[in-house]
Amino acid sequence: MGGADVDREAGPTIGGLGLHLRGLGLGAVELAFPIGNTLGAWAMLAVGGFVPVLGGWLDDRVGCWADVVSRLGGVCPSTIVGDPDADHGPVLGRADAPELFDEVRALARHAGARPPGQLRLSYLPCCGATAWGRNGRALLIGLPLLSVLNRIELRAVLAHELAHLARGDATHSARSARFVEALGRAIETAPRGSISPLRGWAHLCLGLGSRLLSPIARGQEARADRFAAGVAGGDATASALVKVALVQPMFREVLGHYDPRSSPGLPNLYAYFRSFWQRLPEPLLVAMRHRLLSDSPGRSDAAHPALIDRLTIVQSYPNRSCSPVDLSPAESVLGDPLSLEQMLHNRLFGLAPMPGPSIFHRAGS
Fold it and tell me: Which family does it belong to (predicted)?
């Protein structure tokens, strides 16, 4: 692996104690909600709430505890845990991208984390960490990003996501985030006009959970940004943040107008997008960056600080020395990027299947 030495000390992280305390508070809300729901439901049943429940049972509208709570005016959120076999993209084998596996292993060691059990090549220009069960963890890498980033920028993106895995952001905090989101959905879809102590309890827990979750998510993003900047350097991390923010809506726009069935002569989606990106004139890219940065304060969300604030943080870190390999296209970490592009294109559009990953390079690896 060429480029900066990832074993050098990264910059300090922020908000460790505050994030931990807020996380404990959010976990307490998550535990308290079903307990309060159960105690409140039994209390209401004892003082006459059994009447509507009995009526619902006679009408075959009550068949489980969640139906009982619903008849009493409460909600029982259902948190849907991500399916590890869901199609986030094919799982890469080491033979498909040996340099990528080496990079991830070195960064994981530097972050103090076990390397993820899976590297998945995602269809969209995103990069993320996901976890399921006790030990299941995967790193998702969007193929379109590899056409836009260079290798040191990719290192910054990978370091950011591995920092989330190292600190448990993809497990404990993600579970609490799913609880808050599920509770919000349950309240939105519940019958309107119901006045019930259980409904009030649900609104109280949602309000507390939301107030605790937003600072946690933002603090985790800032912490991961700092780790990435300490590993890849301030300018490379800032450049990666801007490129990722630019390419995501652009790729979706291209995808919305791309139809291989109506124009059989078109190259595959990823080759088409790469050609589109490379043809963009530099003045236009500069104007797009300026527009992105000028609009960024209004585009912040509950989970991410404004882009301009993130850039301010990462650019306070020194740059790392770069080798020619670091400045080469990120897609060079793949063993056979053209074949992987075609395979992902075929999977996305349901065309004639190609062999999955690990078939292309096994003989020569």
Answer: Belongs to the peptidase M48 family.
Tell me if the pTM is above 0.85.
Answer: no
- Residues 184-217 pLDDT 10s: 888 988 887 667 899 999 999 999 988 888 787 7
Tens of pLDDT, residues 238-268 = 999 999 999 999 999 999 889 888 877 889 9
Of 187, 190, 183, 198, nearest to 30 by C-alpha is 183
User: How far, in Å, CA of 100 to CA of 329, rounded?
Assistant: 13
Q: In the structure encoding, which two tokens stand for residue 177, read together?
A: 């985030």
What's the half-sphere exposure (Cβ side, CA atoms, 13 Å) at 12? 3
Q: How far apart are CA 125 and CA 140, in angstroms?
A: 10
Q: How far is CA 8 from CA 110, 125, 320, in A?
A: 8, 29, 10
Q: What is the DSSP string of 63-92?
A: -SHHHHHHHTT-------PPPTTS-SSPBP
The 3-state DSSP class for residue 183 equals helix
Measured CA to CA, the distance from residue 251 to residue 273 in angstroms comes to 7
Enter the DSSP assignment of 150: B
Cβ contact 176:30 at 8 Å: yes
- What is the percent of the chain with per-residue pLDDT over 70, rounded to a whole number? 83
| CB neighbour list of residue 201: distance below 8 Å, 6 or more residues apart | 33, 36, 37, 40, 74
Q: 243, 148 in Cβ contact below 8 A?
A: yes
CB 148 within 8 A of CB 124: no
| Tens-place pLDDT, residues 22-42 | 778 888 998 999 999 999 999
- Tell me how crowded residue 315 is: count the other CB atoms within 10 A of its CB: 17
pLDDT of residue 53: 84
126-147 mean pLDDT:
84
Task: Quickly list H helices, the chain.
Answer: 16-44, 50-58, 65-71, 98-111, 143-146, 151-166, 174-189, 197-232, 234-257, 269-279, 282-295, 307-314, 337-349
Q: Which of 151, 143, 301 is nearest to 221 (CA)?
A: 301
